[in-house]
């Protein structure tokens, strides 16, 4: 009985081992390389596969997905003899599992070495500044070389990226100084442009202010001149009307010699007014004026008993403010009336020259008193 049990156990174990060697499950996006007696037989797809136990063997399991490999930084010498450290990232995919298995022993290491050598060739023809600013060009050229070289290995390089380009510390310091100098230069240029714009705007504001002030002064002077002109015209019109009124009133009153002598005596105290008038001269006609005044006080001769009133009334003009044309016409009319009145006065004064001559012969002129 124990022997039968041991036999059954061994039989079950044999069946399990045979099934394990016969049935093989390949994961998705993988490929199994099957060898029979050390020779390639076939590639197993994803899923359940049946093998001949103890004869067929899955030698390699190849990943068909896109893979990312980052290589450590490598020193590279540029055209201007500067050593820079460059690390790269490769994106590749196995397209032929058989070629990737039997054409190359370690395709990842091969891609790394090929990347480094190709990168040294590309960067060796560039200077430092071009290397730092030509990442896309380096990536495209590197990808083209790698894709061409790895095609026979069953590998397709999809993308190559330069993860970092590190120049020497001294070059970094110089680059920082240059960048700082460029920024200081741009800041100085922007400051100068701002000051220039500010000065231009200030000058334009001053110009506009001066223009507006000049225009305001000009308009103010024009308005002031027009006001002075109108005031002078109105003042002249008023003086002309006042002269005409006084002149007309004198003629309407028909003054005689006695009235004129009386007015003459009233004006004499005004002549002597003032602290500076220490000496004044009595005119020679003072005697005749006093005689006329005496006869006037005694007999009131020359003064009419009844006054008929003025013969002509003076028109004072309209009370409204006239226009410029009306003011000019009024001034002309006033000047004409004044000239006419003066002419009439001169004509009337020449009608009695004999009477004035007789008065001169009747009494000689009085002697002027000595100055006090």
Concise account of the structure shown:
With 372 residues, this protein is α+β, with helices and mostly antiparallel strands. Helix content is 58%, strand content 17%.
Q: What order do the helices and strands come in, and which of them pair?
A:
Elements: H1 2-22, E1 23-26, E2 30-36, E3 39-44, E4 47-50, E5 56-63, E6 66-70, E7 74-77, E8 83-94, H2 97-102, H3 107-123, H4 128-133, H5 135-149, E9 155-166, H6 169-253, H7 257-272, H8 286-299, H9 324-349, H10 353-362
Antiparallel strand pairs: 1-4, 2-3, 2-5, 6-8, 7-8, 8-9
Can you put this structure into words, describing what you see?
By secondary structure, the chain is an alpha+beta fold. It has three domains: 2-63, no CATH class; 66-167, Band 7 domain (Tetrahydropterin Synthase, Chain A), CATH 3.30.479; 224-362, no CATH class. It is 58% helix and 17% strand. It contains ten helices and nine strands. The strands form three sheets. Strands 6, 7, 8 and 9 form a four-stranded antiparallel β-sheet that branches. Strands 3-2-5 form a three-stranded antiparallel β-sheet. Strands 1-4 form a two-stranded antiparallel sheet. Helix 3 (107-123) packs across helix 5 (135-149) and helix 6 packs parallel to helix 9.
């Amino acid at each position: 009985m124990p022997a039968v049990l041991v036999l059954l156990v061994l039989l079950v174990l044999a069946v399990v081992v045979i099934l394990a060697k016969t049935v093989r499950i390949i994961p998705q996006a993988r490929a199994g390389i099957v060898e029979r007696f050390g020779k390639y037989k076939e590639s197993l797809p994803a899923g359940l596969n049946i093998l001949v136990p103890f004869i067929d063997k899955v030698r390699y399991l190849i990943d068909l997905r896109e893979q990312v490999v980052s290589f450590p930084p490598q020193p590279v010498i540029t055209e201007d003899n500067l050593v820079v450290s460059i690390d790269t990232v490769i994106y590749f995919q196995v397209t032929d599992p058989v070629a990737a298995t039997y054409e190359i022993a370690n395709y990842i290491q091969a891609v790394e070495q090929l990347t480094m050598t190709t990168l040294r060739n590309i960067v060796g023809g560039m200077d430092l500044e071009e290397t730092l600013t030509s990442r896309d060009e380096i990536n495209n050229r590197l990808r083209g070389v790698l894709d061409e070289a790895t095609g026979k290995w069953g590998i397709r390089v999809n993308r190559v990226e330069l993860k970092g380009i590190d120049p020497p510390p001294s070059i970094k310091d110089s680059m920082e100084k240059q960048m700082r100098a460029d920024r200081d230069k741009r800041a100085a240029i922007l400051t100068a442009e701002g000051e220039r714009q500010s000065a231009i705007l200030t000058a334009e504001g001053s110009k506009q202010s001066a223009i507006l002030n000049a225009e305001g002064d000009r308009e103010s002077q024009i308005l002031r001149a027009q006001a002075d002109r109108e005031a002078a015209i109105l003042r002249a019109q008023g003086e002309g009307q006042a002269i005409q009124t006084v002149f007309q009133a004198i003629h309407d009153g028909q003054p005689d010699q006695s009235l004129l002598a009386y007015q003459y005596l009233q004006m004499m105290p005004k002549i002597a007014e003032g602290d500076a008038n220490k000496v004044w001269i009595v005119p020679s006609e003072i005697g005749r004026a006093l005689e006329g005044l005496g006869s006037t006080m005694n007999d009131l001769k020359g003064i009419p008993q009844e006054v008929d009133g003025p013969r002509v009334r003076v028109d004072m003009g309209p009370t409204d403010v006239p226009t410029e044309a009306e003011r000019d016409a009024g001034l002309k009319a006033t000047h004409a009336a004044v000239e006419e009145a003066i002419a009439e006065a001169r004509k009337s004064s020449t009608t009695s020259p004999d009477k004035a001559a007789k008065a001169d012969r009747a009494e000689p002129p009085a002697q002027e008193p000595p100055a006090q």
